[in-house]
């Protein structure tokens, strides 16, 4: 699904932000694609002992993922947001769009 959606955007860099539980998988799947970069975001909520995407939050992303270019696309797991597009701490996904000034896709 990710590759299909991104096929028309080959001139852009895709930053896949993922939790520890899936980092190795995504890193392996996209290592041969030069316009994809997989970033590990460690979950520090609840002491960091939970490694699933559902507990990823904006605080962890902002502290671990550095700024990207305006042409980049940031891919986030849909599991980290509720039906109102808020993370577990109540931050709306648009706050990351504003902070990074980048297009964000929730996949």
Tell me what the structure shows:
With 107 residues, this protein is of the alpha/beta class. The chain has four helices and four strands, in the order αβαβαβαβ. The protein has helices at residues 2-6, 20-30, 58-64, 94-100, and strands spanning 14-18, 36-40, 73-76, 103-106. The chain has a four-stranded parallel β-sheet with strand order 2-1-3-4. Helix 2 links the parallel strand 1 and strand 2 (36-40). The longest helix has 11 residues, at 20-30. The protein is globular. The relative contact order is 0.20. The model has no long low-confidence stretch (mean pLDDT 86).
Task: Give me the Rg, rounded.
Answer: 13 Å
Per DSSP, the total helix count is 4
Give the uncertain stretches in residue-range form.
none
The ordered H/E elements are HEHEHEHE
Quick check: average pLDDT?
Answer: 86
Structural class: alpha/beta
Strand content: 15-25%
State the share of residues found in helices, binned by percent.
Answer: 25-40%
Number of strands: 4
């Amino acid at each position: 699904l990710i590759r299909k959606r991104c096929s028309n955007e080959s001139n852009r860099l895709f930053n896949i932000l993922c939790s520890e539980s899936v980092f190795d998988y995504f890193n392996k799947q996209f290592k041969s694609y030069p316009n994809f970069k997989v970033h590990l975001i460690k979950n520090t909520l609840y002491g960091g002992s939970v490694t699933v995407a559902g507990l990823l939050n904006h605080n962890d992303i902002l502290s671990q993922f550095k700024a990207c270019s305006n042409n980049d696309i940031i891919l986030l797991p849909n599991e980290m947001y509720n039906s109102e597009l808020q993370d577990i701490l109540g931050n709306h996904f648009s706050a990351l769009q504003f902070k990074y000034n980048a297009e964000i896709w929730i996949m």
